[in-house]
Design brief:
Elements lengths: L2 E5 L2 H12 L3 E5 L11 E2 L2 H7 L18 E2 L5 E2 L3 H9 L7 E3 L3 E5 L2 E4 L4 H6 L5 H16 L18 H7 L4 H11 L12 H18 L4 E4 L5 H12 L3 E3 L6 E5 L2 E7 L2 E4 L2 E4 L8 E14 L12 E5 L10 E7 L10 E8 L5 H4 L1 H7 L4 E12 L8 E3 L10 H15 L5 H12 L11 E2 L1
Parallel strand pairs: 1-2, 1-14, 2-10, 6-21, 7-16, 14-20
Antiparallel strand pairs: 3-4, 5-9, 6-9, 7-8, 11-12, 12-13, 15-18, 15-19, 16-17, 17-18
Length: 452
């Protein structure tokens, strides 16, 4: 068995849990005193003020500091998505409680609209005119019925040769419909997908629709008490299978021999290993900067206007609507999720930095949130590995992107797993491993953890 050392954000916590189940011997080291590193939930509120170097203490109107648990990098889980499948297969769900996000919205010409994803919603939506509603409805029916094993459902659309631009043209869908379909349903970050094979977008829309069907209000879930619960859950899982987790362990040196990692030095001692998985901050000479992300955490005493006063939601502002190259994301949670004082709301706006004034770039999102009681602004560099680990056996994750869902995170997890293990991440194989451990009668559902 290998000894793997992990120095960690949520990526590495998930991988350590999965690999512990797979029989790997895992040592998990973190320089921080808390779980999750940059994906942590900060509590109490006083610590958030200190982290962002704000003077003074939170005003009394913010309530008790210990009632707050604010995500530094907030993201939602797709109810039928990859991370939920990982949670179910590894049984980490037993450590977590979830709540359904109450709404999913898209921005158009300064206003927000509910994302239509069913035939009924398409016909009722004010996003489109009457004729386009029917064309979009026919498009949704086509996507829902599309089956690679049944040529009759394809209607002459080649999944690998027909582009998404071709498919939109087939149904005579205009620019506005293309915007919310590609960015709010398929969750693409740019318009590059338009000239790629349409099967990728069809599958993404199916995932959104299937996730919505699980619980009805939106396709998204969120853990009570914040995302910091996720790395803790996977750390517990790793411990059950013999993994060791060490907080407050400074990483002094990555020990190499003949170009290959052999250990990690901490406080004068060396922990020997055959493989190392870490985030970019631990080994900057093997990564390259690929951009920046701006995030603004906003504390409010009201829900976002024109959302039906929901306690939680996501809003996607497609790039073309605000003359940008990248989408702007907004997610809102509240005291209903045990992350804020009673009657308070936390909204986070994020996007890829494109100018020398990142905060101004998020103005369309901030205008939707007014009035804002307090803002916490961060600009983070994004890194990608230049060393894929084949020779060094060091496997480095990518920095979190600006999206408000975990699908891109899970893609990175699977990529690292494949590089480290030499085989693709196979959900079916993981399911078989789970059944060997827990028995075939394990119930792979979330209802008992879902809070109303």
């Amino acid at each position: 068995m290998c000894l793997l050392c992990f120095s960690v954000v949520l990526f590495e916590c998930i991988l350590s849990g999965i690999m512990s189940v797979k029989g790997k011997k895992v040592l998990h080291m973190d320089r921080n005193s808390y779980y999750g590193a940059e994906s942590a939930s900060i509590t109490p509120l006083e610590d958030l003020y200190k982290r962002f170097s704000l003077p003074g203490k939170p005003p009394e109107s913010m309530g008790r500091g210990r009632d707050w648990s604010v995500d530094l990098i907030p993201k939602f889980l797709m109810a039928n998505g990859q991370l939920v499948r990982m949670l179910l297969i590894t049984q980490v769900t037993r450590y977590l409680d979830f709540k359904v996000i109450e709404g999913s919205f898209v921005y158009k010409k300064g206003a927000i609209y509910k994302v239509p994803v069913t035939e009924t919603e398409a016909l009722a939506s004010s996003l489109m005119g009457i004729f386009e509603k029917r064309r979009f409805r026919n498009f949704l029916i086509f996507v829902a019925n599309y089956d690679l094993n049944d040529p009759k459902t394809m209607e002459g659309v080649d999944p690998n040769k027909s582009t998404m631009r071709d498919l939109y043209k087939k149904f005579s869908l205009g620019q506005d419909v293309m915007d919310f379909t590609g960015h709010a349903l398929a969750l693409y970050r740019t318009d590059d997908y338009l000239d790629q094979p349409c099967i990728n977008t069809i599958n993404r829309i199916k995932l959104y629709s299937e996730s919505l069907a699980r619980y009805g209000k939106s396709p998204y879930l969120y853990p009570l008490y914040g995302l910091g619960e996720l790395p803790q859950g996977f750390a517990r899982l790793s411990a059950i299978y013999g993994g060791t987790y060490m907080l407050n362990k400074p990483i002094e040196e990555i020990v190499m021999e003949n170009g290959k990692v052999v250990g990690v030095k901490s406080e004068g001692e060396i922990a020997r290993c055959k493989q190392l998985i870490c985030d970019p901050s631990y080994i900057m000479d093997r990564v390259s900067k690929v951009g920046q992300v701006v995030r603004i955490i906003c504390v409010m005493s009201h829900p976002i206007k024109n959302t039906g006063d929901v306690n939680s939601c996501q809003i996607i502002i497609p790039q073309i609507q605000v003359n940008r190259k990248h989408d702007i994301y907004v997610c809102m949670i509240s005291s209903a999720h045990n992350v804020a004082a009673q009657g308070k709301y936390v909204a986070i706006a994020s996007s890829v930095v494109e100018t020398n004034d990142p905060e101004k770039e998020l103005k369309p999102a901030l205008d939707l949130l007014e009035p804002i009681e307090q803002k916490f602004v961060s600009i983070s560099d994004q890194y990608a590995p230049t060393d894929m680990g084949k020779d060094s056996q060091i496997f480095i994750s990518r920095t979190y992107d600006a999206t408000t869902h975990f699908e891109t995170t899970c893609d990175d997890i699977k990529d690292i797993y494949e590089r480290a293990m030499g085989t693709e991440f196979d959900f079916a194989e993981m399911e078989r491993t789970k059944n060997d451990i827990f028995g075939d009668d394990f119930c792979g559902q979330l209802p008992h953890q879902l809070k109303k």
